[in-house]
Amino acid sequence: MSLQTNLTMIKLLLDDIRSGEKYNSNDTKVIRYLLGNIYNAALNKKLGLDKDIESPDYAYMSESFKEEWEAAGNPAGVSALKQFGIHEHYTPLNVLITRMVQECTDEASIYEFASNHNILVFVTKKEDECLNQSGYQRSLPTDGKDRYGEVGIKIHPEPILYKNFKRKKK
Asked: How far apart are CA 60 and CA 122, in angstroms?
């Protein structure tokens, strides 16, 4: 499935929501999947990689997650990373969907929005628990502050190479 197909499918879902259609957990799962593909395309573009929606070899990580991962010897692959924590939306998915319904009217605006707001970050299990306990797992602070900053999570500023190390050294 191409990036354009993903954008078109999200637009159709957003149009349905705007027209009063109720969306359910299956719709949310589809939007999560489609946003993941768009995120992949945007990150690949940012990194200068000639890939469409293929999963990048790089990921954003919290500083704590990166330290734990490096202390364990930088095990490669998503399944290895998931032993240290979870892959979390920087902005909660339900907030992203609500804002997209309000702000995105076409495929270009969806791509622009997703490129700027749909960031995925590996955080430690402890950091995820802090988000849960603070009430920020599915919401943002009412004062508009950064939910990660509010609970002390610091994100490493650049994506980290976490798989296919040998291929990158060539």
From this structure: 6
